[in-house]
Amino acid sequence: MTYDVEERPLVKIAFGEIVHESNTFTSVRTGIDSFEDNGFYQGSELFQKMVGVGPIGGFLKRVDESEIDYELIPLVRAYEFAGGVILKQTFDLLLEKLIVPLRNAGFLDGVFLSLHGAAVTENDDDLEGTILEIVREVVGRDALIVVSLDHHANITTRMVAAADMLVGHQSQPHDTFDTGLKSSSLFLKCLNDHIRPTLAWRKIPMITPQDHYLTSSGPMKDWFDRARILEQRQGVIDVSLYPMQPWLDVKEAGWSVVVHTVDLPELAEDLAEEMAEYVWRLRMSFWKSSRLAPEEAVRCTYLADKGLVILADTGDAVYAGASGDSTCLLKEFLNQSEGRTEMILLPMVDHEAVNMSFDTGIGGRVDLVLGGRLDNVFSSPVEVSAEVIALSEQYIADLGERGTCELGSTALIKIGGVYVVVMERAVAAINYPILYTHLGVNLCKAHAVVLKTGSNFQNFGFWCRRLIRVDSPGVTQSTLNAFKWNRIPRPIYPLDGDLGNWKV
Length: 504
Known about the structure:
The chain has helices at residues 32-38, 45-49, 54-65, 88-104, 127-139, 157-162, 176-193, 218-230, 265-281, 294-303, 328-336, 351-360, 434-437; strands spanning 11-23, 40-42, 70-84, 110-115, 144-149, 165-168, 198-204, 236-242, 255-261, 308-313, 343-349, 365-370, 382-392, 396-398, 404-406, 410-415, 418-423, 446-451, 464-470. By secondary structure, the protein is α/β, with parallel strands linked by helices. It has two domains: 9-286, no CATH class; 294-477, no CATH class.
């Protein structure tokens, strides 16, 4: 249906984003500076900064394509990809930036929010539940609330009670922009057609390591492919799967399934049950692993044929909240590098080392006690003598769907054949080629690169010839029973055994 300009109905929508993936096992805390480093925008800045970026970018595109007039109320965008739990005062500030303009907006037809789903503060282990409850209180029961979530979210009772739709990523690597397109398409259709979706969900008492989080193969592909098939059924508008990231010791932790239908509550319940039972039958396959011990991983790296080897430092996965300063693999490369000339690339978060490298200058030699300061439980510093190869300050890296991020001060130092990019802080670009290329490194000449992630390797796909998952220690390690669990619901697989014929 088309309208004359004067006759078009005006639909009033508020939108915003608060994203953080919290790791409850690290002692490092997340303050407002981390959000400012990775993208903190308010009001009209969202229109300028978020075009093409993440779920909000997808939302803006869908609204722009719509034939119906929408009045958009921008709230806040606060993004920090991962880290330790958020300081209370930081969350209080973010909440204020979200809620004040929401209250000032008056009547709203709907609210579109981009959240992560696994954020924790010092005094609240269900940040998203808190946000959604307050938003619902402000806008009332009639307004439609649709949420775009990371599929590693932990779905909670409060989130389900407050939101109308909880739509997760459909793939790993994350399809953030596409998730924004999908969730906002459903959002706008529901508003336009006056549809109130039906939501059903199931909690699954299970956590697993990160080895099989990619949706391109293995059991995760089977599960996610099944969801896409079910979405073709009449009346089913979304099936979102949530294999929760496992480094989250909170009271409602576990995997989830969320099903949305149009006025078909029984079908929604049946499909949620079916999908929960389906993945439960696959549970043991998620624990099959090809991880290598650090010593063996480095040995295999040096034995590998020509072409780039990627080593996934799974215990120091920055995208899952690790500090990025583990020295585990650095030590192994230094131990095995005598007489080797291959270029090995490795990132390291160490503010002091950056300062000392700048003080030394390009071409000089500097003695460093490197890394192991932030994560001093699973790692320890290593003494090195290095040559300063290159320096950079305040470089702005374009990360595509992730938006931009400032790298801060970085230094490229050389220790034999090991080239280390030392950074002031962990930023999203740590697992991107730009971290090395902006310092003059030719990736075609590199033999191996260490990535601080367990599953996000796609940015190095052009050069990669082999992937090695390293069974490294740290706050994101795959040996989940090594952690002290205090709040997670029990029993849960596999911490309490197989649980046998547990019924969803």
